[in-house]
Amino acid sequence: MASAKYSLPSLPYAYDALEPSISAQIMTLHHTKHHQTYINNLNAALASQATATAKNDIVASLHLQNAMNFNAGGHINHTLFWENLVPASSPSAQPTAAPKLVAAISSRWGSLEKFQEKFTATLLGLKGSGWGWLVQDTETGNLELTTSKDQDIVPAGKKPILGIDMWEHAYYLQYLNDKASYAKNIWKVVNWKVLEERYESGFEGVFGPLAGLRSSI
Asked: Has 35 been labeled as part of a binding site?
């Protein structure tokens, strides 16, 4: 596990920039409270781990691993999430900003519309807290839909292209129990330009400064 101290990344847009798909209230709380808490807990766990390692306390190290994995996953997943959203008025919110990815999606699922329907169904099929992902298998190059529980990151060998947060804190204040409307409206603020960049890049390009943290959990 990396020993660096992590900090909350700035959003590439204002808190109200994704309205009406995602409210300013949700974005503010989600970013400054929920994401910040994962970072705070990750840094605390890393400090405790350093102490345990110095003392050669293997039992304490093992107990800390789950906390580190959970909070590191929360930091990584949310960082990817903010980056793959954009105001609906931006040219990047149009699928035309991702010609190569859309072509691959259409080849895999028949059309972009069928893919979106399938992904939305995947999101709504999640039981409890978790994430829905469009990933690319790094060996075969195939596109796949998958989910992860709680703050688990995508499995090894799968490169995340699009991640959607389906924890209640991501939508409840605005949509209440209507998850379907949240899952439908979030397509209006997907950053296809970023998705295209992820599709064409390797792991380092997707995870950036968090690549080391991702490889350690």
From this structure: no
